User: What shape does this take?
Amino acid sequence: MTRPVISSTGLFTPAESVSNAELVASYNAWADLWNADHRAEIEAGTATPKTHSSVEFIEKASGIKSRYVMNKSGVIDPGIMAPRLPERPNEEISILAEIAVKAANEALSRAGRSGSDVDAVLCAASNMQRAYPAMAVEVQDAIGAKGFAFDMNVACSSATFGIQTAADFIRSGSARSVLMVNPEICSGHLNFTDRDSHFIFGDVATAVLIEAEDMAPSGSWTILGTNLKTQFSNNIRNNFGFLNRTAPETVGAPDKLFIQEGRKVFREVVPMVASMIQSELDRLGMSASDLKRMWLHQANANMNRLIAEKVLGREASETESPTVLDQYANTSSAGSIIAFHLHSGDFMPGDRGLICSFGAGYSAGTVFVQKSA
Assistant: This one.
């Protein structure tokens, strides 16, 4: 059986960013406008006034300090409070495919590959721009890849699920070089008028090239083992979809955007993920001390701190569990890949680490890797 490795990764970062201060200013201005428009209902007791957000609240709740976005002007305009991304003609590459290709090209370049070397393309992300044709097929066409392509969605765990899927293709002989991309325009499904979550997400795209070990470049990453888990929960949900967005009364409904029960998610996901990591360590005959680094999903700094502590038996250092959340915010499936991409250059042959995701579903995935010579 052919052994799969991660040959390279790629990252696309949007040019525009929004600080917490800018986001708070726009939200508070919107809240004041809403309260003024609904003054009668508020005075009658039939509506609750919107309270202000603050930089301190955001950083304490999440650890986020800023986020990259594809369209800043719409996000911080109190009269819009959403990104404004013009539709493109069918003859032009779609925006989700465009940013995926940018990340893909970096991954291919770092591995010394061209698109024609790729046998399969997986587009693994939280929200696809359209139902079909698949975003992956558009990316495949844009880079000149051969073989096959398809989309997959497991919310924030899409990348780790995509890595295992690609690795399985390598093991089975169905493909020898698989490109997995994670284009995430999360600002498009974030409710910027919800004080409890208006700060959570950012936009980005990542790419991972998974290949057969005998063709991989030097310095690749051996995939020691992968494990996936899902458990149904309504605590993180997004009801957008063509079946749920057609009736006039549903347009603008909050549940057609991102919603979550944050405290429940924290209480339920942290022990689930920590236990999953420990079980996989046991299966692989490893201990936590064998891990030089954990590249955890970038959703919430407090969650990552507690998961790492449960696994290590002590508080993790920034080196052992690096954070990109402060700069990028939650980028859904791309978060752990960004951390891996930016914080793996100091690994020596034989060093081991863990890429781990967790999110809506619930879904969780682990990918244990070892630096090759």
Residues 358 and 364 are 4 Å apart (CA to CA).
